[in-house]
Amino acid sequence: MEESRCENCIVRQFNALRAMTKEELKAVSDSKETRTIRKGESLFEEGDKLGGVMCVRNGVSKLSKLSANGKDQIVKLATKGQVMGQRSVVAEEATNLSAVAVSDMEVCFIPKDSINSALHKNPDFTLEVLRHMAHDLREADDVIVNMSQKTVKQRMAEAFLYLQRFGVDEDGYFNLRLSREDISNVVGTATESAIRIISEFKKKGLIIASGKRLGVKDEKKLRDLAEGF
Amino acid sequence: MEESRCENCIVRQFNALRAMTKEELKAVSDSKETRTIRKGESLFEEGDKLGGVMCVRNGVSKLSKLSANGKDQIVKLATKGQVMGQRSVVAEEATNLSAVAVSDMEVCFIPKDSINSALHKNPDFTLEVLRHMAHDLREADDVIVNMSQKTVKQRMAEAFLYLQRFGVDEDGYFNLRLSREDISNVVGTATESAIRIISEFKKKGLIIASGKRLGVKDEKKLRDLAEGF
DNA sequence: CGACTCATTGAGACCGCTCAAGAAACGTGG
DNA sequence: CCACGTTTCTTGAGCGGTCTCAATGAGTCG
Questions:
Q1: pTM for the full model?
Q2: Considering the domain boundaries, does residue B82 fall inside one?
Q3: Among A26, A16, A10, which residue's Cα sits nearest to residue A53?
Q4: Band of the pLDDT at A68, cuts 50, 70, 90?
Q5: N or C end of chain B: smaller count of CB under 10 Å?
Q6: A187 close to A146: Cβ distance less than 8 angstroms
Q7: A32 and A142 share a domain?
């Protein structure tokens, strides 16, 4: 039971909860609820009013938004230590994104009351949350520019570099197995286009691919491609 | 001199400064510096380390980011009451955006020290800043989806609806006069494409246009078009 | 009135999307 | 373990949207 207390949770180092006081952390730990989510299951849907935030202990979730033409755009992937739904809780609005597990997950649901009381009383914590959100906002700005100014091929190269951040096995394959459709939803393109580019990259020796197993082979060339050289 | 004090400044109602205490506001007011910026002049450049934030008193500034292919992408327009550079100050990083005036402006430069001390001591203020940033982040997510999933025509329709928010004159023309190039940088397209779509919209009676003067004519149809009908 | 910048229009090439069909991988129940 | 349906992946062909280049017209300011 010890390791199920937030006070002892390692992932806390990666998020804003580390700025909480012992007492606040205790309150969070007492009210939280650990959940196991199977791959493919939904954590919440766009438009839901969230009663709290989700802290990822293990696994990866895609955060996506449905567009008018019926396609999902994956805005970001949340992994160990990241907190989902904080935007919604802070702004007291419904979520603008849906969250679906892309691998089996373990998440802690933290009711918003314990978050809110800390937000009102502990400026260090609030500031830490603010810093994380500032970081997210910067990344979002970068994505906007990429989406509007780069070709699908460049964005695909970036996507591979992005996926690499979630870890690779001894052969260099990504730990995270995304379907071609999910990849195309990260890149913002048609699935067929994504597939064609993947096989092109493979032929050119930029990446390794065998079935669903994908990985980066020539990081430097991918980076150059993403920058437009 | 009275109206140059932040305590009496009306635009404060629109931003996070309204959550400051009287004392904090006094400190801000004593350290701030009012600047007049001519249309076309730059407020700061991508990569600059900002010594503080800019609060817009009057006029409009474009916040843009240069992409590798040499084109600016306008991420947002900041107008009366909006604070620029807070992301950079909060995260203690260089700015990720450049700011250039698109009309004559009056802005107040507020050194970061007075902001930072309030951020550490006044949770109400910090929370208010956080809420604003949460709102910005939501808008950024929406833009990402629009950029990746909508056609240039749809985005152009959205751009017109967006520009309308900055006010119109008695004839329905936008108060804000953007060049075709700036418009295309909002939409994220080539200038020629933007021009062609503008004349198409005019022909169809969706907008009014005479030279640089632009305006919305049929808001409903524009909205439908933006949504993909 | 010249030297700008900005707006407009045309034509051609290319990129990326869609539709359609087949191959491979996966899961499930017999 | 196999047969089956279902999903996912792959490839081809064609169309349409968007970009680029280039030339012309219009507006602005000394």
A1: 0.92
A2: yes
A3: A16
A4: confident
A5: N
A6: no
A7: yes
